[in-house]
Amino acid sequence: MFKPIRKAVFPVGGLGTRFLPATKAMPKEMLPVVDKPLIEYAVDEAKAAGIEEFIFVTGRGKAAIEDHFDLSLELEAQMLDKGKNREAVISHSAFKPGQVAFTRQQQALGLGHAVWCARNLVGNEPFAVLLADDLIKSHVPCLAQMSNHYQNVGGNIIAVEEVSPEHTDRYGIIEPGNWDRNLVEVEGIIEKPSPEVAPSNIAVIGRYILLPEVFDFLDSQTVGIGGEIQLTDSLSSMVGTFPFHGFRFDGQRFDCGDKVGFQEANIAFSLDRSDMKEPMRELIGKYSSERNA
């Protein structure tokens, strides 16, 4: 029996420059898909997987995330006074006291550095990492799918999906071994290889279950591609020493770090809402008709 996954790390220190000027004063993780910020989707996914402790690795200008998950007694009271009970429930804190912690990544030195900043809060137990930019729409939340498989195989498990071969230089790419349904043995992993040297087109997506030994490798603070401390480099060092699998999840991923992907997510999630489906279909039809006129 493997140790359960109780803690999740949310690296939210990035600058979000691709969404300027919207992210000049607002964290990119607070950008809403329909009516809920990206980071809340990630937190809800973690909760559905049984996560008990939530660790946010923030940076300067990210106070809105902490405020969002705090109590808002004034707002809650106003909603109740106006008879808006549903809104009052929504405005309530998502966490119990002691469930959430915030630590600061003082310099934007890469994903590996952000995860390393959480080492003392994670301690010596396996943990999850969720990147809010990767929004996954699925019947069973992605991290819950991964946790179920973790109980059978242990070790490191990373979410993967196939990408266009010409886009391998945007992702961490695995060298796949044997497949067993949705699980594949990871025989190697490389950060953002060019299509000419990529070992496959199977890309790492922003969901991880990691052993605490990853911190031993991150301790070296080795700088990789892009002048950053890459999580992929430390994971590569663990291949062959610890159980390591890629997991092909059931669901659709939206790259919300990309403007088009973000808009696609808003359309898809709107169409999935009973209160918005028909108006959205009418709007899409209207603009499609105008464009073709």
Describe this structure in words.
37% of the residues are buried. This protein starts with 6 loop residues before the first strand and ends with a helix. It is of the alpha/beta class and 293 residues long. The chain has helices at 38-48, 63-68, 73-81, 85-90, 111-116, 119-122, 142-153, 214-218, 231-238, 259-271, 277-292, and strands at 7-11, 32-33, 36-37, 53-58, 100-104, 127-130, 134-137, 156-162, 172-180, 183-191, 202-210, 244-248, 252-255. It is built from eleven helices and 13 strands. The mean pLDDT is 89. It has one domain (7-257): Spore Coat Polysaccharide Biosynthesis Protein SpsA, Chain A, CATH 3.90.550.
Which tags fit this structure?
293 residues, alpha/beta, Spore Coat Polysaccharide Biosynthesis Protein SpsA, Chain A, two-stranded antiparallel sheet, globular
What's the mean pLDDT score? Answer: 89
| Largest sheet, spatial ordering of strands | 5-4-1-6-11-8-12-10-9
Report the C-alpha radius of gyration, rounded. Answer: 20 Å
Counted up, domains total: 1
Helix content: 25-40%
Q: What's the helix count?
A: 11
Q: What fraction of the residues are assigned to beta strands by DSSP?
A: 15-25%
Q: Please state the second-level CATH architecture.
A: Alpha-Beta Complex
What is the count of β-strands?
A: 13
Structural class designation: alpha/beta
Highest-level CATH class: Alpha Beta
How far apart lie the N and C ends?
A: 62 Å
SSE order: EEEHEHHHEHHEEHEEEEHHEEHH
Give me the CATH superfamily. Spore Coat Polysaccharide Biosynthesis Protein SpsA, Chain A
As an assembly, this protein is single chain
Poorly predicted runs: none
What is CATH's topology name?
Answer: Spore Coat Polysaccharide Biosynthesis Protein SpsA, Chain A
Based on Cα principal axes, name the global outline. globular
